[in-house]
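Margin note from the TA: students keep mixing up input and output lines. Inputs are the sequences; the output is the structure of the whole complex. Example:
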Amino acid sequence: MLSERRLEVLRAIVQDYVGTEEPVGSKALTERHRLGVSPATVRNDMAVLEDEGYIAQPHTSAGRIPTDKGYRLFVDKLAGVKPLSTAERRAIQNFLDGAVDLDDVVGRTVRLLAQLTRQVAVVQYPSLTRSSVRHVELLSLAPARIMLVLITDTGRVEQRLIDCAAPVGETVLADLRARLNSRVVGRRFTDVPPLVQDLPDSFELDDRPAVAGVLATLLETLVEEKEERIMLGGAANLTRFNHDFPLTIRPVLEALEEQMVLLKLLGEATDSTMTVRIGHENFHEGLNSTSVVAVGYGSGDEAVAKLGVVGPTRMDYPGTMGAVRAVARYVGQILAES
Amino acid sequence: MLSERRLEVLRAIVQDYVGTEEPVGSKALTERHRLGVSPATVRNDMAVLEDEGYIAQPHTSAGRIPTDKGYRLFVDKLAGVKPLSTAERRAIQNFLDGAVDLDDVVGRTVRLLAQLTRQVAVVQYPSLTRSSVRHVELLSLAPARIMLVLITDTGRVEQRLIDCAAPVGETVLADLRARLNSRVVGRRFTDVPPLVQDLPDSFELDDRPAVAGVLATLLETLVEEKEERIMLGGAANLTRFNHDFPLTIRPVLEALEEQMVLLKLLGEATDSTMTVRIGHENFHEGLNSTSVVAVGYGSGDEAVAKLGVVGPTRMDYPGTMGAVRAVARYVGQILAES
DNA sequence: GCTGGCACTCGAAACGAGGGAGTGCCAGGC
DNA sequence: GCCTGGCACTCCCTCGTTTCGAGTGCCAGC
């Protein structure tokens, strides 16, 4: 177990390194922080911290920088979540109010988060699997062609084209639409499958294939993982850490273009606790020197999706966590109102 | 007027510079191209080309690089559009087939273009103002709250929340829905306003405000420029020209995050001719060393929107133009089918 | 267990020489 | 009149050397 002072030294190192982006030495540390001991003592502490793997030196005779393990300790034990100023809170509110639809909400959120944290923002659309049905619409585009439109309680709209083997009459379609809605409106999407299973049975034999086709597409839409949509913003902020630049920005940009990677970054937890994934904890080559701060958001207690930011491991964790949490709360409110 | 050979020299310079990314000198030129003259002659030609502003040298005693004016001449007079190989064509087809909805089409297109050209791809969603109405849906969410869903013939779906001053009955809503659809389905969005202007008059006095409100939101949705949606992809390709890197990538990324800038980049022309905007022709600081190749696409002859790529002025114009044109054609086909 | 002192390390910046690619210009030849 | 070979000149780039300084580890002393 590390002594109190050594933890204090680690905290000071993290803070200074985040601020200056340069390895921090023992002398500079004692000058910038009131540690009450001499540089020599700090050097001894640093040697211990290095042995334990919390800090490292880029090369002999340079200052120290925190390791992933060091940041982890910092986040878990040494740092809190910095609340936003009232001015910032007001800015968030102003910015998010006035969104006209879900796309707009998500778009504004992503820009807001990017601006607030000066990092790359990632916002997931409300997940279908965690939403409820507000309305199902069936539109006949051509005799054997139907458009399925799904509207969720979070305002999300999904559409699908369905090619039927045989033409479907307007009356059948209207009938199906009515029955479908009476059964599923207000229900969670995950509960839908058993509710519609026997629906084809109540139709004329001739119409059953078409009805079954529509239902199949409906269920497919619910299940497909690619239906998890994600919006990204603030990529320009990547250029701010122009340290070892070209080497590091490339793989990050590439990773951020992959839907699947983004989803994994945000994490699987379905509650709204905040997760901080640091460096190698992301298990993705190329994101080894980036951290992710993510949190669930939703209209109620339960999270319908996640949002967060991606930045260098050398980031202002307390500030970032504060911003992410605050934005998630406001987005939840907005969603609850609509 | 430049002599034939001098044009040939310019072409050679552009080609070599695009290939090597390094200023090209007279000796290297004669070695790599069969110009039939000596380096000294080429030097004289280069001096003339420089006087005319087609090429420049970064500093005395360095090779020459093309100026924007030089690229312009190259694109206009010296280069054609390189057709894609059949393998590439097949790849496009395979990649775009199997898209399930409009979002999917646009998403696939953006990835395809980025991959094909190895540059940043930009795809605009079919513009509302150039589409026709397929269906208008009105859903009652709460007594005084309506969701308006607009579906276009290109498969685009837009939704809007409408807060009415007073509750609107289901029958009124159904009535309005029916009348609205019978009037506007199949019509161009730009033609809609006069078609619905007198619609409130046919309703009970009590219901007119609500009806008018719905119509107002509908018209607003059509007009608003921000409804021009755009998808972006391949940002990681920016890192490929890591020449004067950090200086140049930052403003480009920033510019690409602004919806308005992107729209302007794609250009205003509504037909499907290809436009190439080179360097300063973009009139946007930060995009001074990037070029944009854009073209309209649509299901018929007329363009419903634009797509294109953004890359360094030092790009392979013939190849890029070929890829952009080919992709636009395929997307048009896909759209026509749906 | 803390501190001051000291020798040592090693990267970053500054300096300077050399090489080389490229240029402009000129005189001569077809 | 246009092309060509020759030549002197210009600068950038590379590379080795040097210097400088921040930082370290270790040790003896309090």
